[in-house]
Amino acid sequence: MGWQWFHRLGSPRWFYEKTDAWIPWLAVVSFALLAVGAIWGLAFAPADMKQGNSYRIIYIHVPAAFLSLAGYYIMAISGAIGLIWKMKLADMVMKCAAPIGAVFTFISLVTGAIWGKPTWGTWWVWDARITSMLVLLFLYLGVIALQQAYQHQDTANKASAILALVGTVNIPIIYKSVDWWYTLHQPATIKFTSESTIHPSMLYPLLTMVIGFYCFYALVLLISTRTEVLEREKKTRWVNELAAAKAAGGKV
Amino acid sequence: MMKFQFESLTELMAMSGHGPYVWACYGITLVALLYLVISPLRRRKLLFEQLKRQQRIAAHERAGQNTVENQES
Amino acid sequence: MTRGEIPMGSAGGVTDNVPSIGAGFMATLRRDLLIAVRHRGELANPLMFFLMVITMVPLGISPEAAVLSALAPGMIWVVALLATLLSLDSLFRSDFEDGALEQLLMSPQPLYFQVLAKVFVHWLITGVPLTLMAPVLGVMLSLPSAGYWPLILSLLIGTATLSLIGAIGAALTVALRKGGLLLSLIIMPLYVPVLIFGASGVRSAIEGFPYLGTMAVLGAFLALAIVLAPLAAAGALRISING
Q1: Residue C89 resides in a domain
Q2: How far is C222 from chain A (nearest CA, A)?
Q3: Structural domain boundaries in chain A
Q4: What does pLDDT average to in each consecutive run of 10 residues of chain C (243 residues)?
Q5: Neighbours of C52 (CB within 10 A)
Q6: A221 phi, psi to nearest 5 deg
Q7: Residue C236 contacts A, CB cutoff 8 Å
Q8: What are the chain B neighbours of A52 within 8 Å (beta carbons)?
Q9: Which of A70, A217, B50, B66 is 20 to 30 A from A166, comparing alpha carbons?
């Protein structure tokens, strides 16, 4: 009995109908957290001693960076589940997680670059973290490109799942290598954050934003996967009935 | 602890000179996050419209066949 | 086609007419080497690419020895990496097109060792020649004399790792008609650690620091790649062939 839910997950229709009720809740929670965190961080948290007000970018840069890394693991794990248990739904989650993760990586790169301008006086610095983030973006783009190169959807999913898994093994090595490379070439001058010394009045809004970003990620992944389910199953009767109900003005 | 850090709204916008950077970051992030929400919803809407069109065509064809059959009988 | 004459996995039957793993490995190795020797002309292509790109460096930047010697370790490493990448597309391609790959998948031999044999041959015909040619290019870019042995050693270990990791990409893209560029896109990010340790090993040797530590790290990468990469490549081949 305990495994029943797991097998049910194999049914995209069950997933679509089950998650219908979750969407509004997740939307309310994530938007509330993001709004509170952003206003708190922008207007109420004290300014940083060294960096002044520019440090307020941290409230989106750090959560986005967290999620771009976590998103890769979520993508790789669902890809692995799809490969091992041949679960269609996991394949769809993996396919949807790739562009979402790439967008979060892009956000953290762009905010990092903009932050660099007032901090270092230049838009781009080959800082260890920014460089690793760029490589992570390349890994995401590779998975997306491979996914799109295959005509056959099933093959595309399996191939990109393997690539995502290979990337997962590599990410810690890449991060360590880039860190090592950075210390070799220029000893750390200004670090973005020193987490150990961050004051609680700055930490709480950051935590709010991190949780908000996670909720938002779940929301977007859910919406995206649901759309993917519909597109994949558009020839089935239940999707057509859903479309007909939508045409009649019913809530979907 | 929860003290508004700026004297006025204009100072909040200016952020003692760092305003453009900070607000640009928040703006770009907002756009990117909105894109993430809107694009799958739009895809779903398009899919539903496409299915509706197909259903209408199918209904038309069925109706057409019915009338042909009626005339024949 | 000439390669039809070369029997696959025919050497040394042990039990039930299934050759041992070692014999299967050696058979694939011999077959691929024979094919490579018969297509000698293609062997020179990565080397010519290596030479030509390195020639572009002084033309594009500056012929001054001081500038070039600062660039030399990184430049040689980057171009060797690109040359390996370009040669990888053909790793499984011809076998895929004439159906030999399907036979490889159906053979009772573990695919892991078959892939390992093919990658080993790829390294022998691209990585090793690139390594042997690197000192010549080092002279052209006025690489300081302390850098030659580290360059050769790091390229020898590093190109083997590059071939192994690249085999995964070659296996993933073999069924695609235009896989070449995609192969580079998906594999290049995975090459970052090898490039970092390879190039900086040479650099630290030039600056008079010990470099054996970085070589040890490269060796560790190689060991990890030998264990994992053929597994991933074998899985990818099954997907590419069977869908």
Answers
A1: yes
A2: 13
A3: 56-243
A4: 45 58 86 86 88 92 90 93 91 87 84 92 94 93 90 95 95 86 93 93 89 92 94 92 80
A5: 10
A6: -60, -40
A7: yes
A8: 15-18
A9: A217
